[in-house]
Amino acid sequence: MSTATAFEKARAEGRATLVGYLPAGYPSVDGSITAIRAMVDAGVDVVEVGLPYTDPLIDGPTIQTAVNAALQAGTRTPDVLRVVEAVAETGTPAVVMSYWNPLARYGADAFARDLAAAGGAGVITPDLTPDATDEWIPAARSRDLDTVFLVAPSSTDERIAMTTDACRGFVYATSVMGVTGTREQVGDAAAVLVERTRKATDLPVAVGLGVSNADQAAEIAGFADGVVVGSAFVRRMLDAADVDDGVAAVAALAGELSGGVRRR
């Protein structure tokens, strides 16, 4: 399934799409696969598979802790592709969340080829701007992969137009300025940003950075096409006594959030 199909399905059901993130390789490659499958079974519509990287610029301490553990355990890009393949086998779109450096090192064409072969739907590149994508966009287009870029409250209208024009699949709107992490409030800037972004594109707009509970998911679902949750899932895994408890915890959270995006 493509991300476009997932968003269309959710829209037909009168709700927002739930996008859930976990890094590949935490607590192990097999453990991350089990956890992600549990999230899907509990209601996650699109999965962000994090590609562990040594310099995660926009990630807060929660995700950094898990990513570092995955790297220390030896997780590498082929392992990420194995996780993507496992997600794709469930019929759920899998998009890789990756900084540009690991993709450049792997080779843009090679990564696009191998991601497509694994059944991946696309890539979110948080540190790559659309005006610096001479390598990535042609490689992604040649394999029919989504290219998802970020817009922020600080983005000018011109910047939003340029960014959304380069996007395929959906647009990722960051609800706040800053690094990832759960927050008490989503912030009014998110709704304003979604409204501004919709003036520039017909693509679905998903809001992320800070969502941690069903009430926040319901709030965002009232004005956005998708709700992105990352740190809250990772925190459930970090706080668990063992892998089984972690899997149960992320499944429970996915169920709660799934209920949130369905509220009216």
Automatic annotation (TrEMBL):
Q: What class of enzyme is it?
A: lyase
Q: Got a GO cellular component term for this one?
A: cytosol
An example of a Pfam family matching this protein is: Trp_syntA
Q: Which key words tag this protein in UniProt?
A: Amino-acid biosynthesis, Aromatic amino acid biosynthesis, Lyase, Tryptophan biosynthesis
Enumerate the GO terms in the molecular function aspect.
tryptophan synthase activity
* EC id: 4.2.1.20
Q: Which InterPro entries match?
A: Aldolase_TIM, RibuloseP-bd_barrel, Trp_synthase_alpha_AS, Trp_synthase_suA
Task: Supply the SUPFAM superfamilies for this chain.
Answer: Ribulose-phoshate binding barrel (SSF51366)
Catalytic reaction list: (1S,2R)-1-C-(indol-3-yl)glycerol 3-phosphate + L-serine = D-glyceraldehyde 3-phosphate + L-tryptophan + H2O
Q: Which residues form the active site?
A: 48, 59
Q: In which pathway does it act?
A: Amino-acid biosynthesis; L-tryptophan biosynthesis; L-tryptophan from chorismate: step 5/5
Concerning its family, UniProt says: Belongs to the TrpA family.
Please name the HAMAP family in this protein's record. Answer: Trp_synth_alpha (MF_00131)
Q: Partners and quaternary state? A: Tetramer of two alpha and two beta chains.
What role does it play? The alpha subunit is responsible for the aldol cleavage of indoleglycerol phosphate to indole and glyceraldehyde 3-phosphate.
Entry protein name: Tryptophan synthase alpha chain
Task: Report the source organism.
Answer: Haloactinopolyspora alba
Q: What taxonomic lineage is listed for the species of origin?
A: Bacteria, Bacillati, Actinomycetota, Actinomycetes, Jiangellales
Gene it is expressed from: trpA
